[in-house]
Amino acid sequence: MEKRQTKATEGTAKNYQRDEHYFFRKEVLPKIYERVLAKIMSDLEKCEVLSFTSDCWAGTSDNFISLTAHGIDKNWFYKQRILAVTNFPGEHTGSAIAMKLRSILEQWRLEGKNVHCFVTDSAKNMCRAFKEVDENGSAILPFFNANCAAHLLNLVVKEGLSADLDIEKLFVKCRKIVGHFKKSNKALGKLHEIQEFLEIPEHCLLQEVSTIWNSGLMMIERLYEQKKAINEYAYQNCDFGLTLTSEEWSILEELIAVLKPAEVMTKGLSKSPISVVIPYARVMHDELYEMKLFSRKVDQVRTIMYNSLKRRFFALQNQKVYAVSTFLDPRFKDRVILAEMTSNVFRANVIAWIKAMSEPLQPEIFDFDDQQFTMPPDQSVSPPPKRNGSFFDRLNNIVKSNTDRRTPTEQHENIELEFQEYLESGLEETNSNPIEWDDEFDVWLTDLGILHGTRTCPECHGGMGLESARNGRRYGNWRCSNRQCRPTLGFLMVTFFSGSHLTTKQVFALSYYWAQQMGTKKQMMREFDIKGDHTIVDWFNFFRDICTQFFGRNPPRIGGQGIIVEIDETLAVRRKYERGRLVVNDVWIFGGVERGNHHRCFMVPVERRDAATLIPLITEHILPGSIIHSDMWRAYGGIPNLPQGYMM
């Protein structure tokens, strides 16, 4: 009998699981999909112009193609939405890519949308896709194709590293050393013992990934960091094939110096708009030009990278999208121009393009073939003395030092006057983001009343206006509109976030983690990029204080219609040395607890236990209609006569 019941129960459970899976697969997921689809289409409709990024890649068993839309809506909120990551079987020819991207655009009803540009890598099949035409002779993808600057820089680095056979052999040797410790736990444990003995960072070695160029830099950086440990390991094991010679270590050190600016540029490009391509290329150009190296082989790598950078990046300032984007970026304007072009020529080209912006953007295709630009293939580099400073410090110096006189036009039209005023205005800090000048989250906080939407001057009681953020600050100041008054207030002053170095998003995220009791301090430091755990502790204490103040001003009431509440008083005392007589300063506490599942309670310190003190506390903390159980203390005698309707 029990076996039959068990089988019946198992069958019911399986059927329930099947029904549950069917319900979510057929009912819930389609509804969620439709809601997300409508939300994405609504966001895209708010953007007057869209740009797209796309890529193709091969997985372990399937090939894929992706398409992501980017735009800025009328409120200057940046929108980025992934439209497709879909299977892409067959040959990845130019025509196949063009038809696939066209079908995705039609699926999202974006084929008639005003498209700014498509950003892809510079692979020949991708470039070919934007040249393909249909049977009517019309372009399948009639859009401007901007090549991914990070991919171009990847080609620059690979071209430099593959120029010298000895450099390639050195990388093979480095991969062999790393592979030895990756494959042997015994060797790895011995390496950790040596690291601990030599008191150097106990870091693991990193292996190069062929598809990611900067993984090679990470590999040789970590090897050079662990130079002493690797040499000691090779000496103890009498296997000097597991280390490098002194000359090879010197080459490795100079290779790191050559490749480091390229890594900084790659990371900067991966999180920045297209307007930074020309300025970053200028900094990279100057970095390579001014390096002073001693190894002939590494200097040859630097020279080839320098020439490749000029060949691939200098032509970008002749393209409308790159030039106009850089010019309209308030961090750069016309201050960061690559060599072989003057600022006057750059400005003239940009102004002419902007005047013609009412015309449709014509497709421009640049394949960046080696024969396309007539530049000397082996142009030598004479390095002047090296200057100090990081990649972005150099960018700041270039922007601030380029203050050439601009030639005024004889007769200004309105648009030319705007250009002149724009060029004469100050520059934003290079580490700021010109797009995210008004954060969507802060606008939401303003709508909730948590941040100030308007401010009143504390002196003249007039209105105050919000200035734009300057000098790399996240927010501008509130300034009095009265010119004779003009005091300023910080944007976050007299708000929940006053005096905090964290952003509003970081504070709200911390409050969520605190309320849900999620994660550890180390996890939060890593997740929200917070430097010290004392910041998290301080904010958690602040959250507790706020809750205490809230419940102090809004005490909860327990009980309710027909619910039993037990009340009593007790004396809170502390005996001297835990024994003997009572101390004089004892405290009476009056409280109540609710019977049932919730077990809600309250406790209040009182000075007296008479009816004048306890009855008001009962009405304050216990809901009308409650059934009150007590020890029949004489002060409770008036409870049944209360108008709120309590029962004893």
From TrEMBL:
- SMART domains, sorted: DDE_Tnp_IS1595
Q: Where in the cell is it found?
A: Nucleus
Q: Which GO terms describe its cellular component?
A: nucleus
Quick one: where is this thing mainly located? nucleus
Q: Which organism is it from?
A: Heterodera trifolii
Keywords, A to Z, come to: Metal-binding, Nucleus, Zinc, Zinc-finger
Name one molecular function that GO assigns to this entry: zinc ion binding
**Span of domain ISXO2-like transposase:** 557-648
- Give the protein name, as stated in the record: ISXO2-like transposase domain-containing protein
Which residue spans adopt a coiled-coil conformation according to this UniProt entry?
none
Q: Which InterPro entries does UniProt cross-reference here?
A: RNaseH-like_sf, Tnp_ISXO2-like, ZnF_BED_domain_contain
